[in-house]
Amino acid sequence: MLVALRVRYNPLIFRTTFKSCLCLSTSAPNKPPTIPLLGQKYPTDSSTNITSAITDKLARNLYLEPAHPLGILRSVVERHFSDFTALSGWSPLVTPSKNFDDLGFPEDHPGRALTDSYYINRDLMLRTHTSAHEVEVFSRGERRWLLSADVYRRDEIDASHYPVFHQMEGARVFPATPAGMAEVEEDNARLTAHLERSNIVIEDVPHISATNPPQPTHDLRHAELVALNLKLSLNSLMLSLFGGRTGTSGEPLRVRWIEAYFPFTTPSFEVEVFFHGKWLEILGCGVVQQQTLNRANVPDNISWAFGLGLERIAMILFSIPDIRLFWSKDPRFLTQFAAGEITTFKPYSKYPPCYKDVSFWVPDTGLHDNDVFDLVRDTVGDLAEDVKMIDTFTHPKSHRTSRCYRINYRSMDRSLSNEETNDLNAAVVSRLAEAFGVEIR
Ligand code: PHE
């Protein structure tokens, strides 16, 4: 009877109430003076670029629902690190200082750009990663902690990218003293013994190298012991999550470590797991930059930290084929899962896709792909499965540039009629012209 109850889709209901916020020009006319977020009003300015498709998500807290795949995965990781303090429910509104400066991001880091992150105004943004809370949690004196939260990044639209996703940060702090290092050694011996008894093959890289240097203020032996503790702790987490599951049955779990770079850790690593015939990037981690601990007022310590994306891992473990499904309110999705259990998603029917191409002349002031993607998301919600720029050319005489985007419309829970898809596309086209002054071809 669900079908009978469903209201026929009206493209207008997705129209944002502050649509001009999509306009990224320095002066943005028609922007409302304030926007309401999580029960409070915030002033807008020329940096404001958050859309209503995003603000609607701020209070969903999917990762806190015990029987939602994201909540289940969160609890499985929390169960693994059972002696860590599990933190959650922290507001996604942070200052750019917290998200970037405190962690040593350079002034010109691309993540800071309006095209890459969502700003409420120049002094307030949506966190782009859970590392934004490192200083605050360290300053509380937490020695072993996990923090789960929703994070936001402007990005492309396809089956594995969504502008809102979830991360889990984890960290462990040791006193930089002989007693602290004895604690690390003891833990390393315990974890090594556990891993030696397990069906796991690890491809490692040196804890420290010329390309993955230690920190000048660190005792080299301390840094090596802590990096080893990080690797052993995460190899053991990988075993809990991926070991002995279908696709790896009988075969040892393969984990590989790769040197990486993050402004707030060194040495830094990425972890990949071989699953269903492919290497999958699972998380980033490293030895925390001393300036983070100093800023948090816990200077005489040494720490490791990691950050993992919950969607990516949940899509693999639960066999969820499209990232939009996490946001589905369809009982055929939601009733499949039970608290504490990783089970395989049984797809209900996949409805037919319908492509529409939109071609236009780009205004002289330019237009970023992410502005187009956000406008599509804001206009048609999750009915856009993916959006790709499929063609671009510059006219030899007028020097104007034309672009063509292909929008693939498909609903997760019903069939869209051609008429409805045409309406959706017409709404996108008219808003593109309105918000960015593009000339439709
Ligand atoms: N914050 C990083 C990201 O979002 C991940 C990370 C966390 C890396 C902690 C190192 C330490 O990609």
**Structural class, please?**
alpha+beta
Taking pLDDT < 50 over at least 5 consecutive residues as the criterion, the unreliable ranges are: 1-28
Number of self-contained structural domains: 2
- Return Rg in Å: 24 Å
General description of the model:
The protein contains twelve helices and 17 strands. It has about 450 residues and is of the alpha+beta class. The protein is globular. The chain has two domains: about 5-335, BirA Bifunctional Protein, domain 2 (2-Layer Sandwich), CATH 3.30.930.10; about 355-440, Ferrodoxin-fold anticodon-binding domain (Alpha-Beta Plaits, 2-Layer Sandwich), CATH 3.30.70.380. The site of phenylalanine has 11 residues, from strand 12 and strand 13. Is responsible for the charging of tRNA(Phe) with phenylalanine in mitochondrial translation. It catalyses: tRNA(Phe) + L-phenylalanine + ATP = L-phenylalanyl-tRNA(Phe) + AMP + diphosphate + H(+). Its EC number is 6.1.1.20.
